[in-house]
Amino acid sequence: MSDDFDAVLIGGGIMSATLGTLLHEVQPDWRIVVVERLDAGGLESSHAHHNAGTGHAGLCEFNYTPRQPDGTVDPSSAIRVGQQFAASLLFWATLVDRGVLGPPHTFVRPVPHHGFGHGADGVAYLRARWTALRDHPLFADQEFSDDPAVLSAWLPLMFTGRAGTEPVAATRSAHGSDVDFGALTRQLLSAFGQRGGALRTGHEVTALHRHGAAWHVRLRDRHTGQRHQLRAPYVFVGAGGGTLPLLQSARIPQIHRYGAFPISGQFLRTDHPDLVAAHRGKVYGHATPGAPPISVPHLDLRVIDGQESLLFGPFAAFSPRFLVHGRRTDLPRSVRPGNLPVLLAAARDNHTLMAYLIRQLTQTADARTAALRRFVPTARPADWALTTAGQRVQILKKAGRRGTMVGFGTEIVTAAGGTLAALLGASPGASTAASTMLDVLAASFPHRMPDWAPRLRELLPPPDHDPDQLAESLAHARRTLGLTPAGRGEVHR
Ligand SMILES: Cc1cc2nc3c(=O)[nH]c(=O)nc-3n(C[C@H](O)[C@H](O)[C@H](O)COP(=O)(O)OP(=O)(O)OC[C@H]3O[C@@H](n4cnc5c(N)ncnc54)[C@H](O)[C@@H]3O)c2cc1C
């Protein structure tokens, strides 16, 4: 195979798999290669066990509905995330219709999404959230209740026999989903390969350089140690936690001062059939003051390869690796004279975040059980085991004179006239892959977008789609994907 391509996509996660699929649709004559350092795609953050599998649609996550000083809630981020997830659903449904993706239950299932408010203030916050969203077509099915009988019918594990006098309330949206982003990634990559795309697994990109009009992408075969070089006029760096070091190797000026700090996630997991049978949803609580959005506790029903389990977390942990299968030297090797001041400023200026991380890292098993018991008052430690999820590499940069952590959002970086694009940050993550990759196409190929637009519109709704029209298209996509709302207590298998 020649080493000249029209596009090199680095990393075989959900982002590159989605971009490869879109590029193939709009430009089927292009030679496109996905390069992945592991022996298959979808084994890092996109792997089902490395993330919470929530189809983030704004239905239950408090961090997308910040509270205003007057106690009302700003719904705009939740609506934006809802639209982005709707784009993903429409995209996947089209691919299922065309036989590109396999049976939908192999990667997405209907699992109701709930918001959980506790304490008088938390209940008021949840009510304000529900009030702000309920008139929007994407949130029309959302119900609110603080009635113990209703709560216990919705979520028996959390509310049946709950003692104490703390006010509690929940919302329920039957339109929630649980997604196996790893399975989805592998299906997309397999279809990409069958339709002429190239996939080089077991090859690590070690450096990127621009020579004239081409990017030279250096690879190392991780099994033989052999080195190769690919050339292409366009490169997408979708290497997850491995993205920043590659941008550093390419000497991208914007990221000269960016630093990175890895935080790994841990979950408590149970497969106990009685517990799983008594909890048929994904329930998101609110963060404690000063804690970052990734800390928002949630209790999730997961369905992975047909096996049901419950996950509670996340708890933050530390590893210097930028990838689950990365190296201990990842963090020290990313420190350069250009970003050292940012790392130091971030440590100095983010006291509450640092304090939160230190509390998390020194947390005992008893403290984790206490956090779980806010959700499951009867939880017994023997039923739950601690599991390690994916690495989140938080991006640090300077805002004014302060060092700021910006990794909680997703940032598209483009360089060299749009011939290189990269994705930094992790939230809201995999759920928004389709619309985020549409943004990458628009940022990378503005001059081609008018030609590509009609084809793209067949796959994805445009960002300015009318909300009622979107809700209608979405209803159709949901039927295709088997996402008809589950009855109470029931999850489609
Ligand atoms: C704890 C946790 C919970 C999460 N929960 C959710 C959730 O509930 N819902 C949601 O939507 N999102 C969630 N996310 C975010 C989501 O998992 C990520 O946003 C998404 O998987 C990122 O996809 P990606 O393709 O960018 O990265 P990845 O899936 O990490 O893929 C990057 C790939 O690049 C490869 N790679 C790295 N370096 C190189 C190199 N030098 N050469 C070649 N290949 C390389 C890696 O091996 C990897 O396969 C969560 C993340 C974490 C960590």
UniProtKB/TrEMBL annotation:
Enzyme class label: oxidoreductase
Pathway: Carbohydrate metabolism; tricarboxylic acid cycle; oxaloacetate from (S)-malate (quinone route): step 1/1
Keyword Nucleus (UniProt): no
Keywords: FAD, Flavoprotein, Oxidoreductase, Tricarboxylic acid cycle
Keyword Oxidoreductase: yes
Record's catalysed reaction(s): (S)-malate + a quinone = a quinol + oxaloacetate
GO molecular function: (S)-2-hydroxyglutarate dehydrogenase activity; L-malate dehydrogenase (quinone) activity
Cofactor(s) listed in the protein's UniProt record: FAD
Any one GO BP annotation for this protein: tricarboxylic acid cycle
EC number(s) from the headed UniProt entry: 1.1.5.4
Alphabetical list of Pfam families matching this protein: Mqo (PF06039)
PANTHER family (alphabetical): L-2-HYDROXYGLUTARATE DEHYDROGENASE, MITOCHONDRIAL
Family: Belongs to the MQO family.
UniProt name for this protein: Probable malate:quinone oxidoreductase
Organism from which the protein derives: Micromonospora viridifaciens
